[in-house]
Amino acid sequence: MKIIVIFLLLYGVLFADVLNVKDTFPYDSFNDQFDKKVAITPQTKKIIISFSKKNGKAVKTFLQTHKGYLKKEQAVYLADVSSVPSLVMFLFMGPALKDNNFSIGLIEDEEIVEILPKVESKTTVISLDKMYIKSIKFVDNLQSTVK
Predict the structure, then answer these.
(1) What was the pLDDT predicted at 3?
(2) Which one has a higher pLDDT value, 98 or 65?
(3) How many domains does the chain have?
(4) pLDDT at 6 over 50
(5) Distance in angstroms (rounded) separating the CA atoms of residues 117 and 113
C-alpha cells in the first residue's frame, strides 16, 4: 500500500501539468529580492517570467527604460532562481538583484518552475483576468507588449 501512495505522489510531481489558458494561476505571492511579498491578486493583469540570465537582463533593461511599467500594467515580474546555488544567491546574485528599483518575485522552488509555461530563450508573459489565465505569450523582448 505504501508503494502505491509513494508512486502516486511521484507521478504527480513528475508529470505535473503545465498551466494553460483558462486555468487559475495557483500562486498568490512570492518573496522578492528584499524578502518582501510580491502579491498576485485578482487585480493583477500580467505576470512576466524570466527563466534565464539572458532573459532576466532583457527584462531588467526594459523595466529600467520603462519606469512605472509594472504598476501601470498591473503586472508582476518573476524570475526563476531555482537552480542557483544558495551560496551564489547569497554572495553574488542577491546583492545584484537589490540594485534594481523594482520588485522581482523569486521563484525558488523547482516544482513551481515545472508547471509554469516556458519556451527556451523566451520571456513568458501571462495575462490574467481575476486570477484566470487569459493568454500566454512567449516573447523575445517586452517591447512587443507595450500598447
Answers:
(1) 54
(2) 65
(3) 1
(4) no
(5) 8
Identify whether 78 is part of a domain. Answer: yes
**Which residue segment(s) compose the domain that 95 sits in?**
18-145
Q: What nine digits make up the cell of 120?
A: 527556451
> CA 16 to CA 4: how far, in whole Å?
18
DSSP code string of 12-75: HHHTPPPP-TTSBP---EEE-TTS-EEE--TT--EEEEE-SHHHHHHHHHHHHHSTTHHHHTTE
Q: Within 13 A of 70's CA, how many CA atoms are on the CB side? A: 19
3-state secondary structure 84-119: CCHHHHHHHHHHHHCCCCCCCEEECCHHHHHHCCCC
